[in-house]
């Protein structure tokens, strides 16, 4: 992974006006994983959208870490279910066309 694809956790905290301890709590809960280079934690660019979603849940809706964990797992499960529904619909279309 190129260093250009990484954002320093401190920069993220400053930009979003969020405490560093919030992000470390998310990491401890297994909701986010940081890349460490020379003891400095970084966020991979592909994880940025999910981390921003968790930050908004916390700041705008005052959801705590366990609540964020539940919401994220439920959203992941709903996405898996939607993919299954789409696959089943595609199979039904195939058999309807026969």
Structure description:
With 98 residues, the chain is mainly α. 64% of the residues lie in helices and 11% in strands. It is built from 4 helices and 3 strands; from the N terminus they run βααββαα. The protein has helices at residues 9-16, 20-28, 48-61, 65-96, and strands at residues 6-8, 35-37, 40-44. The chain has a 3-stranded antiparallel β-sheet with strand order 1-3-2. A hairpin with a 2-residue loop joins β2 and β3. It is elongated, with a radius of gyration of 18 Å.
The number of distinct β-strands equals: 3
Helix content: 55-70%
End-to-end Cα distance: 47 Å
Largest sheet: 3 strands, antiparallel
Shape: elongated
Strand content: 5-15%
Q: What is the string of SSEs from the N terminus onward?
A: EHHEEHH
Instruction: Enumerate the strands of the largest sheet in spatial order, edge to edge or round the barrel.
Output: 1-3-2
Rg, nearest Å: 18 Å
Low-confidence segments, given as residue ranges, are none
Q: Please state the structural category.
A: mainly alpha
Mean pLDDT: 93
How many helices?
A: 4
Offer a concise description of the structure:
By secondary structure, this protein is mainly α. It is built from 4 helices and 3 strands. It has a 3-stranded antiparallel beta sheet with strand order 1-3-2.
